[in-house]
Design brief:
By secondary structure, this protein is of the alpha+beta class. Helices cover 25% and strands 39% of the residues.
């Protein structure tokens, strides 16, 4: 299993559990979590990331199809879709900047809502 795939598996585990230990297992103490690349500031530091994840209520249990697109020793690019049935759906591209221990020291989400099909 590759480092980016291990990280993605850990992300999904932490996302589903919301357990602080699971979140700490995938982000470094000084990690930056960017919701969008053009955010004015990231969520910075593991304690802030853990707090953000524990406060984040999902509207429904998400369905996801995420996979590693490309990676090297320092960067994993993950793409896929996330759907909250009855709510929003997103197309995602994630930058996961990996520390030597396999945790992310910088995470950047690029997410978009799918375009509605044109009527006609």
């Amino acid at each position: 299993m590759t480092p980016a795939q291990r990280w993605l598996d850990g992300y999904i585990r932490a996302w589903e559990s919301k357990d602080a230990a699971d979140v700490r297992a995938i982000f470094t103490d000084d990690a930056e979590y960017w919701f969008r690349p053009n955010d004015p500031e990231p969520t910075r530091g593991i304690d802030a990331i853990v707090a953000m994840w524990s406060e984040d209520d999902e509207p429904t249990l998400p369905e996801h199809d995420l996979r590693v697109l490309i990676e090297d020793a320092e960067l994993g690019i993950i793409k896929g879709t996330i759907a909250y049935p009855g709510h929003e759906s997103y197309t995602n591209l994630w930058e996961v900047h990996l520390a030597p221990d396999g945790r992310a020291h910088r995470f950047v989400e690029w997410y978009m809502t799918p375009r509605e099909p044109e009527e006609g």
